[in-house]
């Protein structure tokens, strides 16, 4: 693919990934092969809604070198491995789509329904866990790539790689993968299907352009007081959204603490979230919110915080997905959460590095 064509394809794919909920915030990445010796990839930590051509990075396929001050995605090695092992592949999507992410927790290959075998193959393999951006993850992915003929693979506790001869083909693969993984997840945890229904993400409180506090129309006075304190005390919080869903409410009734099952939740939301009561002292709630960007309020929903509405919405999306992961764990105890140490490490790195780039 020519460089100009690759730039257009990557930017269009970035917009489509956001609108299709295949990624949240800066998570996930996109690349296109350029000639025989390089590939174009999205940058590290840049929000897709504001991405421009001059922020895309051309990377050498042989040694991962690049020029300029903008860093390519930390997962560039994973993309390079796809191109090295799959010569026919022209485009790679790394997504955090919901059902594929949940299926990655099962720790096994996912059988593909007949309807999707033409595009995906008969099974989707899962690469063993490795922290994002590490050689361990890249090596685990490479082992799977060398052993599979599938056009997609899962990465444990992380997400999916979808790759094809064009960007359109890669998107079609991602969509088929989501349907195949949905069937696998429903088999393992019928409760996830039973709980699915109407969910809402609405404004709880925000700091307006004039510096005034604005509240959601139906927000309880007690929550108004809490939100006012959060917006005052958390320097990186300008918007708070209230997530209400059957999955979130059910999980708060079943466990005292929501562990991190997925990398994106650990980084963007929290290493874990304690279930809190609305009548708990405000000082205690503020203390819990100091090192996380969500509060689970039993019987109410999840307060999701961010510098902007889009950032808070991304947090809400990840809380919802991670609650489904908890339900999957309760249905199949072989599903394990990320270790506390790994979750804390990812959260620290994200807050110190990536969140400041977005």
Automatic annotation (TrEMBL):
Entry-linked InterPro entries: Aldolase_class_II_sugar_metab, Aldolase_II/adducin_N, Aldolase_II/adducin_N_sf
Domain of life assignment: Bacteria
State any GO CC term.
cytosol
Record bears the keyword Cell cycle: no
Keywords of the record: Lyase, Metal-binding
Q: Which GO terms describe its molecular function?
A: aldehyde-lyase activity; metal ion binding
Give the GO biological process terms. pentose catabolic process
Note the Pfam families from the entry. Answer: Aldolase_II
Query: Where does the Class II aldolase/adducin N-terminal domain lie?
Result: 8-185
Q: What is this protein called?
A: Class II aldolase/adducin family protein
State the organism named in the record. Answer: Sphaerochaeta globosa (strain ATCC BAA-1886 / DSM 22777 / Buddy) (Spirochaeta sp. (strain Buddy))
Q: What is the lineage of its organism?
A: Bacteria, Pseudomonadati, Spirochaetota, Spirochaetia, Spirochaetales
């Amino acid at each position: 693919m020519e460089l100009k064509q690759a730039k257009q394809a990557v930017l269009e794919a970035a917009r489509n990934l956001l609108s299709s909920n295949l990624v949240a915030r800066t998570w996930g990445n996109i690349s296109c092969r350029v000639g025989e010796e390089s590939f174009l990839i999205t940058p590290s930590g840049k929000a897709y809604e504001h991405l421009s051509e001059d922020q895309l990075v051309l990377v050498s396929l042989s040694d991962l070198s690049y020029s300029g001050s903008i860093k390519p995605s930390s997962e560039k090695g994973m993309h390079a491995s796809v191109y090295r092992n799959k010569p026919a592949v022209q485009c790679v999507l790394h997504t955090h789509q919901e059902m594929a992410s949940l299926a990655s927790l099962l720790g096994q290959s996912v059988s593909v329904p007949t309807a999707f075998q033409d595009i995906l193959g008969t099974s989707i393999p899962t690469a063993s866990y490795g922290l994002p951006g590490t050689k361990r993850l890249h090596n685990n992915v490479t082992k799977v790539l060398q052993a599979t003929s599938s056009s997609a693979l899962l990465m444990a506790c992380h997400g999916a790689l979808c790759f094809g001869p064009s960007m359109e083909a890669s998107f079609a693969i991602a969509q088929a993968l989501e349907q195949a993984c949905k069937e696998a997840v429903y088999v393992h945890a019928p409760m996830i299907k039973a709980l699915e229904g109407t969910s809402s993400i609405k404004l709880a409180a925000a700091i307006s352009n004039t510096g005034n506090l604005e509240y959601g129309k139906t927000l309880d006075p007690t929550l108004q007081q809490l939100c006012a304190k959060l917006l005052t005390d958390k320097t990186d919080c300008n918007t708070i959204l209230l997530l209400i869903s059957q999955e979130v409410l059910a999980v708060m009734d079943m466990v005292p603490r929501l562990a991190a099952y997925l990398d994106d939740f650990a980084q963007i939301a929290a290493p874990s979230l304690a279930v809190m009561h609305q009548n708990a002292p405000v000082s205690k709630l503020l203390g819990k919110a100091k090192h996380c960007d969500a509060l689970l309020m039993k019987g109410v929903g999840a307060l999701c915080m961010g510098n902007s509405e889009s950032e808070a919405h991304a947090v809400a999306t990840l809380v919802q997905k991670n609650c489904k992961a908890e339900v999957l764990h309760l249905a199949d105890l072989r599903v394990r959460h990320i270790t506390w140490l790994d979750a804390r490490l990812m959260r620290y790195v994200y807050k110190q590095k990536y969140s400041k780039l977005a």
